[in-house]
Amino acid sequence: MNIKFASMCALVGLCVVSAFGEEVVVQNDSLTAGDSASICPCFVGGEEAAVWLTSPCDGSIVAIQIFWRSQFGGAPISLEDSIIVYEGGAFPNVGPVKSELLSPAMIDGGLNEFRYTDENQTIPINIPVTAGEEFVVSLKFFNNSTVFGPSILFDDSGITPGKNAVKVNGNLWQSAESLGVTGDWIIRVIVDCTGGLVGSVCLENGGCIDGMTEEEADLLGGVWSGPGSTCAEVQCLGACEIPATGACVQFDLATCDVVGGNWFGPGTTECVTSCPPDMNMDGMLDFFDISAFLTAFSNQDPVADFTDDGQFDFFDISAFLTAFGQGCP
Description:
Elements: E1 6-9, E2 23-26, E3 36-39, E4 48-54, E5 57-69, E6 78-79, E7 82-87, E8 97-102, E9 105-106, E10 110-115, E11 127-129, E12 134-140, E13 151-155, E14 164-168, E15 172-175, E16 187-197, E17 199-202, E18 208-212, H1 214-219, E19 223-224, E20 238-242, E21 247-251, H2 253-258, E22 262-266, H3 287-298, H4 314-326
Antiparallel strand pairs: 1-3, 2-16, 3-13, 4-12, 4-14, 5-10, 5-11, 5-13, 5-16, 6-9, 7-8, 7-12, 14-15, 17-18, 17-19, 20-21, 20-22
């Protein structure tokens, strides 16, 4: 594999499909219309460009998309070896083959989509996947790519670690970043979700649960991180007020505790609470809130300054007791 890069601007008509009905586009790249991307005329026959993707639901892969472009456009249709879907392996190595689409006809000019749209088509794309399943999609080259000929592209917004690989010389898998690739291969799949969209949920206690629907996240009082998200990939950040400085920063609960801060829950951006007397933020007003207030008052913690005048006196105690007596919304 000989790495040579050529930059280009993505087509204005780039087809970036969002969820349509039960169909969801799964991708690593962040390319949208008007963004720049780079052509990689660096492959020889038998080599593969591959991405690691995660299914957001129980369903089936019904289409595969690959961005294929030459530097100046107008190149003839190129018949490449195959598009291969593997089971996820220990990166950068892939697992067993799940499915294979032979001799894809790659058209110069943008995002090529391969989909079962004709009942007479002999090889439908209908590859079962389960929620949270990691799989690998690769384009295997038949033709050598050249500087001015068409090839696969990667985005120019940085590479996602552990998600892009190359099968060098047709026999050795290596991470794309180790070969100098600086962005994500633009290889995507469309999953038809028959079992509902699932993802990770950041909980109010700082924990995280995988494989939950958005409705289930709401019932738990958590924050859904989106379809296909996993706890291994997301940070459950929230607003953290640091009493020593009064700063409000984005931390997870563990980090906020380390710096002695007050955490306002996942997804929060401001260090305010809808129920100020709920000092321990457990959703209930009880003795523990009174104890937490007295401790904060003794330590002159800003959260105990209920009159917000910079002083710690009887008026703060009175304001707290009044708010406590009124209850929470």
